[in-house]
Specification:
Layout: H1 12-32, E1 33-38, E2 41-46, H2 47-50, H3 58-61, H4 64-81, H5 85-117, H6 122-130, H7 135-158, H8 161-179, H9 189-205, H10 208-211, H11 213-233, H12 257-281, H13 284-294, H14 297-317, H15 328-352, H16 368-391, E3 402-404, E4 407-409, H17 411-427, H18 432-454, H19 467-498, H20 502-508
Antiparallel strand pairs: 1-2, 3-4
Helix pairs in contact: 1-4, 1-12, 1-13, 1-14, 1-15, 4-5, 4-7, 4-9, 5-7, 5-14, 7-9, 7-16, 8-9, 9-12, 11-12, 14-15, 16-17, 16-18, 16-19, 17-18, 18-19
Length: 513
């Protein structure tokens, strides 16, 4: 493989691509969501479940593959600009975790307050559930960020064969989970598919995809579209590329080969549009607009569902019409509904965009024990954020948690995970001793959480675990302890090898001699 190109601070095309993707997510969610008020409950209904003919629109509106593709490029550039792996990780996670932490804190307070003051409120419960929907992406993306240097090293060694291997892994998982009916295995595709999209970002970062030219981009586009059509017709995969309530299975939860085809189709389209996008970005007005919007992308992503909650509640109070989904009036009011949400969205961006900072990252030297601590921190935070994405924020500590793959979680358990992991990641800048100590404490808490649940201690029921999840915590805690011990041993061995022996010191002579 050719060596990586020199570090470039920004690629305007990638910036524009990210802005377009988040705009598509926001407008797509707003346009397809209808808040329905019933006497004893409040529903947020996705129009895709009521109007099957609209599901093909997800072939353009499901843009998460492009977000991971752009993330692969950005992580490649950040790693080459950083002095060490841990400095890179600190910079990337600092960019993500502060606005996410603010989001979690605000909604946890709202959820706990709602539960204390009006626990029977169906509307508040639904709001605290749907507000957390964007979090699934962040939990998976944190893992991709942490693995990016290793995955890019693999790309430099074997090129796009690494991406091909990930596609093959997705296919094998589909065969086992769909073909043989072992549905629990399907969760592995959350890793394989999104790492595949992320891997293509490395091929853009080193210029591979650009060297293919327009013909190559067109071929990629047609291949993705052809496979997508084949899978959704002959192959029996659902047409929708997002989860639709009532479908027998989903292409997104977990991802399937149809999502792989979508990735090829969308990346190809993006590459075909690249020349036009670059010409547009050379205009000063466009560049300033895109850069301004780019600084608020994570805030927009996190809070756009909250804008639906605020706008829907006020529309109800104002007596706005509530036509049947799919009716002529419903279609006519869709643009009005999207425009109605804009002021609420703007208020949220103004109030909370200040927490979206772009840190340069602290200077943190790589050391095996620090890397082990960072691994525990990323794992704990990612699991907690993914948990919130499923459970929401209300009720806070039910004895029976919500199932995610083979595990059960509730908001209390999620909060412990995020808090422990975030503390470790922050401590990395204060020295490896403090980070390792906090990681050891976190591992002990994981072990204790599992042990007290298995022992049947009554207060431990509030963690929302089943026995399998309790054992998983014990395994994760033990693995963290072993990794920290190995890291410390490797660090001592490295320091011993680096230290010159007495004979070498004698041969070198006195300092300055």
């Amino acid at each position: 493989m050719a060596p990586a190109p020199a570090v470039e601070e920004r690629d305007p095309f990638i910036d524009l691509l990210r802005v377009v993707c988040i705009a598509a997510v926001v407008i797509g969610h707003w346009a397809t969501t209808t808040v329905v008020w019933e006497p004893d409950r409040v529903l947020s209904i996705n129009a895709l479940s009521e109007i099957p003919g609209t599901r093909v629109a997800t072939w353009l509106l499901q843009v998460m593959p492009l977000v991971f593709f752009a993330g692969g490029y950005a992580n490649s550039v950040s790693r080459r600009a950083a002095g060490s792996y841990l400095s890179y990780l600190d910079r990337r996670l600092g960019r993500l975790l502060l606005p996410t932490g603010v989001f979690l804190a605000v909604w946890l307070v709202l959820g706990i307050a709602a539960e204390a003051l009006d626990p029977a409120s169906a509307g508040k419960a639904r709001a605290a559930e749907v507000a957390a929907l964007p979090l699934w992406f962040l939990g998976i993306y944190l893992v991709a960020v942490a693995l990016a240097p290793a995955m890019e090293a693999l790309h430099r060694r074997v090129g796009l064969w690494a991406a091909v291997g990930l596609v093959a892994a997705v296919g094998v998982v589909d065969l086992v989970s769909i073909g043989f009916g072992l549905e629990g295995v399907g969760g592995a595709n959350y890793a394989f598919q999104w790492l595949f999209a992320h891997q293509l970002g490395f091929a853009y970062a080193d210029g591979t995809l650009q060297r293919w030219g327009r013909r190559g981009a067109a071929a990629l586009t047609l291949l993705g579209l052809a496979v997508l059509v084949l899978l959704t017709t002959v192959g029996g995969y659902p047409v929708s590329l997002v989860g639709v309530p009532g479908q027998e299975r989903s292409n997104a939860q977990p991802p399937s080969l149809a999502m792989v085809a979508l990735t090829l189709w969308l990346v190809g389209l993006a590459l075909l549009a690249r020349a036009v996008a670059q010409r547009a970005m050379r205009r000063p007005g466009w560049e300033r607009l895109v850069r301004g919007m780019h600084r608020l992308l994570l805030t927009a992503f996190l809070w756009h569902v909250t804008a639906i909650i605020l706008g829907g509640a006020l529309a109800r109070a104002a007596g706005a019409p509530e036509p049947a989904i799919g009716s002529g009036l419903w279609w006519a009011l869709r643009p009005v509904w999207v425009l109605w949400l804009l002021p609420f969205f703007g208020l949220l961006l103004w109030a909370l965009g200040r927490f979206e900072v772009h840190p340069r990252g602290r200077a943190i030297g790589d050391h095996p024990v620090s890397a082990a601590a960072a691994g525990f921190g990323v794992f704990a935070v990612a699991v907690g954020i993914l948990g919130f994405g499923e459970t929401g924020f209300f009720p806070f500590a039910p004895a029976v948690g919500e199932a995610i793959l083979m595990f059960t979680f509730n908001p209390l358990q999620n909060l412990l995970h995020v808090s422990l992991g975030a503390a470790v990641l922050w401590a990395l800048g204060a020295g490896r001793g403090r980070a390792a100590g906090l990681a050891g404490l976190g591992a002990a808490v994981f072990l204790a959480m599992g042990a007290v649940r298995l022992a049947g201690w009554e207060p431990a029921q509030r963690l929302g675990m089943d026995d399998f999840t309790a054992w998983a915590h014990i395994v994760a805690g033990a693995a963290a302890v072993i990794a920290l011990g190995l890291g410390a041993a490797l660090g001592r061995a490295g320091a011993h090898r680096a230290r010159p022996g007495p004979q070498a010191q004698a041969l070198s002579g006195p300092p300055g001699g």
